[in-house]
Write a structure and sequence with these properties.
55% of the residues lie in helices and 6% in strands. The protein is mainly α. The chain binds glutathione. Glutathione binds next to helix 3.
Length: 228
Amino acid sequence: MLLLQFSTSHYCRKARLALGYKHIPYQVENLTPGLHMFRVMPLTGVATLPVLLPQLPQSGGQPEVVGDSTRIFEFLEKYQPEPAIFPVDRVDRLAAQVLEDWLDESIGTATRFVYYQFRSSEGKTIDPSLASMAIIRVVRSQYGINQATADLAKHRLELALDRLSAQWRNSDYLIGNQLTIADLTAAALLSPLALIPSYRQSYPWLFDRITQIHQACNEPLPPGLIGD
Ligand SMILES: N[C@@H](CCC(=O)N[C@@H](CS)C(=O)NCC(=O)O)C(=O)O
């Protein structure tokens, strides 16, 4: 399998966690933001990554294409059912899907706003190179990230972390008694917060759980947690 990705994207991390948890061998093709459109749009019709090509192109024929991290989860569960990431129980399965969708559509976006606002201010020193600053400027302009929109996102994250703490502080799992799409999604989409000191101080349980899930998925830890 080939995963088309941005190496630093938290949505691409989400796909890698599922591939790693299921022990599916894969290769990555790292794309350059902006230029990625020329590779991705003809394949999926949308501009976002990750995109999974289940058959390596050189194995012949037209490669199947799975765009969007949620659809990648569904594809991988069918491709290799064990270990499962969707609960078998119907009620738990629906709860996991609703949680995954909320994390994906609302919380992953909020993380992006808070993270890029931080990287353009106090967090500039993490990588002050011109290339890094240029990417941060483009992302902030593309998504309309500024102090006001980042503050709204910060409030949304506070609510989300209160909601998740009720489960993750008492149990290893957000839904039922197994690792699911909800855990993988939360671990990936909240991982950029590991570089922000205020989150590290306020939510130590979050980063413990993100670390454990990365270890269960054989995925290298995100920046900020490496070497902890
Ligand atoms: N809902 C999508 C969101 C993916 C997404 O937002 N990807 C960002 C990178 S983090 C992207 O590709 N942005 C580039 C663009 O929109 O042109 C998914 O889960 O795959």
